[in-house]
Amino acid sequence: MEADFSYSLPDGGAGLSALLDALEAALAARDVPPTAASAILIAADEIVSNVLGHGGSPAVEVSARIADGTVTVTVVDDGPAFDPLAAETPDTTLSIEARDIGGLGIHLVRKLMDEVDYRRDGKHNRLRFSKSFAPPSPSRPSADEPS
Predict the structure, then answer these.
(1) pLDDT digits (tens, 9 = 90+) for 113-130
(2) Which of 25, 13, 96, 102 is nearest to 53 (CA)?
(3) How many angstroms separate the CA atoms of 43 and 47, rounded?
(4) Which residues, including other chains, have CB under 8 Å from residue 67's CB and lie 6 or more apart?
(5) What are the structural domain ranges in the chain?
(6) pLDDT score at 15
(7) What residues pair up with 57 in beta bridges, in sequence order?
(8) Which DSSP state fits 49?
(9) Over 60: is that where the pLDDT of 142 sits?
(10) In terms of CATH, what superfamily is 5-132?
(11) Taking Cα atoms as reference points, which of 146, 56, 52 lies closest to residue 105?
(12) How far apart, in whole angstroms, are the C-alpha atoms of residue 118 and residue 85?
C-alpha cells in the first residue's frame, strides 16, 4: 500500500507538533472532513506521544493512506514489543481517585476510530487505525465551503 502521507520522527518528541501539522495539511488537501480529521489527529497524537514517552523508541514512522472514504494511519517504531490493545479497558465509571493510572489514551483511540490493530513485525511495533468518512458530494459543497 503506497502512502499518501509519510513522516519520520528520528529525534523523538521535538518533531511531534510538526508531524501533526503536516498530517492535518495532508488530510485537508484530500478533503477529509474536519470532524474525521480531528479524530485522526487526536488518535495520532495519543499513539505517537505514548510511543515516544513510554516505548523507548526515539524513531517513529507515521504513514497514512486516504482512499474510498477511509483514512488509515500506521505508526511504526522499533521499541520493545508492546501491544497496547492487550490492556484491559479502563472502568470509566470509577472516580478518578479509584482508577488505575494509564489506559485512557488507547481507550480514547478505540472509541474514536472504526478499527485499531497491532502487530509485531520483526523488530517493529505496528499500530494501525482507521476512520471512515463521507466524502463531499460533487453536487454539494463540503461543510468547509460556502454554499
Answers:
(1) 999 999 999 999 999 999
(2) 13
(3) 6
(4) 4
(5) 5-132
(6) 84
(7) none
(8) H
(9) no
(10) Histidine kinase-like ATPase, C-terminal domain (3.30.565.10)
(11) 52
(12) 7
Do 140 and 40 form a contact (C-beta atoms < 8 A)? Answer: no
Looking at residues 73-98, what average pLDDT do you find? 79
CA distance 83 to 51: 11
| Neighbour tally for 144: CB within 10 Å | 10
Place of cell 478518578: 96
Measured CA to CA, the distance from residue 68 to residue 82 in angstroms comes to 31
Q: Is the pLDDT of residue 1 over 70?
A: no
Residue 2 has pLDDT above 70, yes or no: no
Q: What whole-number distance in Å separates Cα of residue 56 and Cα of residue 76?
A: 13
